[in-house]
Amino acid sequence: MNRPLGARDRWRWVHLILGGALLMPYFLLTQVVVGVVAGGVNALNSGSLTLVAYAASLPLVAVTGMFGLVRPMSVTAARAMCEVPGERLADGPAKSWAARGRASAWWTLHLGIGALISGMTLAVPPMAVMLIAAPVVGRMRDVQLTYGWFATDAGPYIAPLVGIGLLAGLTLCAVGAGKLLAGTAPVLLGPTAADRLAAAEERAADLAVRNRLARELHDAVGHALSAVTLQAAAARRMLERDPAFVREALTAIEDTTRRTVGELDAVLGLLRDGDPARPDAAPAPTLAADLGGLLARTRAAGTTVTAHQDPGPAGDWDALPAIASREAYRIVQEGLTNALRHGAGPVDLRIRVQAGPGTAHRELEITMTNPPAAPAEDRETRTTGGRGLRGCAERAALLGGSVEAGPHGDRWRLRAVLPLAGEDL
Question: Which is nearest to 92 in space by CA: 16, 19, 199?
Answer without folding.
Answer: 199
